[in-house]
Amino acid sequence: MTVRVRFAPSPTGMLHIGGVRTALYAWLWARKNQGQFILRIEDTDAERSTEESVNVILDSMRWLGLDWDEGPEVGGDRGPYFQTKRLSLYQEYAEKLINEGKAYRCYATREEIATAREAYEKETGKRGFRFRSPWRDRTDGDPSQPHVVRLKVSLEGETGWKDVVYGDVSYPNSEQQDFVLIRQNGLPLYNFGCFVDDASMGVTLVIRGDDHLINTPPQLMLYAAAGIEPPKFAHLPMVLGPDGKKLSKRHAAVSVLEYRDLGYTPDGLLNYLARLGWSHGDEELFTREQLIEKFDWDGVGKAASKYDTKKLEHVQSHHLRELSNETLAQKVTPHLRARGLEVSSTDPRLPLAIEPVKLRATTFIDLADGLDYFFREVPEQDEKAVRKFLKQDSVPVLEKWIDIIESAEGESFTPDAMKAELVRWMEAQELKMKHVMPPARVALTGRSKSPGVFDIAIVLGKQRSLERLRKGIEQAKAAEA
RNA sequence: GGCCCCAUCGUCUAGUGGUUAGGACGUCGGCCUCUCACGCCGAAAACAGGGGUUCAAGUCCCCUUGGGGUCACCA
Length: 481
Fold this sequence. Notes:
The chain is mainly α and 481 residues long. It has 19 helices and eleven strands. A three-stranded antiparallel sheet has the order 3-4-7. A two-stranded parallel ribbon has the order 1-2. A two-stranded antiparallel ribbon has the order 5-6. Helix 12 runs antiparallel to helix 18. The radius of gyration is 32 Å and the shape is elongated. It binds one RNA strand of 75 nucleotides through strand 6, helix 5, strand 11, helix 10 and helix 17.
């Protein structure tokens, strides 16, 4: 049987980090098994669903590179892939269950139920009210009147299944009630919509967060009532914030698109997320292909995990460095433009400058920052660095630099050749590297931290290096003694 | 509160009855070094507690504790 899995977000906001991990595992499983990955939009909450959220989800999935075989925009045999476009199907399933006496129309009003709940809580002092509808066995209702459809649930025994990650799980049926399938407005409720869709879309493995563990028994009851073989279930432990609480906006970036804007690579984010809750021996770093090859359910743990941005940054910086300088050039260009630097993504200086900078960057934003002074006509200067290193006594040093770079031609315009010359002079002056490098660094970059000074001079080229050094001398001379 | 799930360094985790309890991030020290990074070397750091079972328990069972989830005409 070919693997068919789905990711079924509800368009009520951004796609967050926990959802991405669920989507990722499903996607990996589909790709690993040459199965189908279905994207289904669960938009039956008319109050909260928005079209904007649908676009955010689609954009997020596309950015992550989690392509879907069936779903919005690509279509498929089992569509439509928006629940609100499948209403007649839910009606059909519901009516079949009603006709078979497995479900019934309930005309009790919300008020009646609320009153009964209050009475129960007042009387027992407990939560956990279960509504017992008087309409369960009545046949005198008028279907033209407002009503909901409920499933006749047996309160005897228990309902369990063998979860792919949790193993045997079961819930006593006494915890259940005749839950609602179709609400008064005709829209299906989560468990029913989910059941109808998974069944009619031929989903073989339901992958979702463990907050859905509790929803599995009702869904299993629906499969049983409809006489349909249920799929398998894999519930994933939660992703919590660093403080062990439910992940929320308070905990750094939680929306996928924020990571895109922060300059992360999809592969870095995905690698980190994959390892959060799944492991493959001691391996930590994976390419997308390796993830597909190595992902398996045995490696998925049962315990909730905490989101750790430090580790994410580490994994991300690794993935950034794995990209070629040419690819990085292309990806970083928009970020350079955002800083007001008009640089072409094919500018030949870009890969050269990227080489030393990428070891110092985690994201494209960092990369753009590290590249800034190479492409800015006049580099922005760190005042503290200027004050500290461009002083009167820096003048001779800077003049020597000018001398070296001016006379450097072809073969001698290399880090090694320049260094040899500088060292010769330095020793004669009884100076150390630490006296001779910082002034040049600040003059060339405006900063006190940067890659090697010689490398920078090479990328900058003779002309621009000389210009900046001359300006540095002016500043040094203007400084107080 | 009822029900369900979970529990190895601060964090992510390896471990499937016999290990000096391993790796990674982070932290701390050192090396490299023109700064910052990268890289390399090293250190501190964990089996929540209590009972069993067993020759032997991080590994199996029970209880306690702690954490999480969920109790809708939300998903």
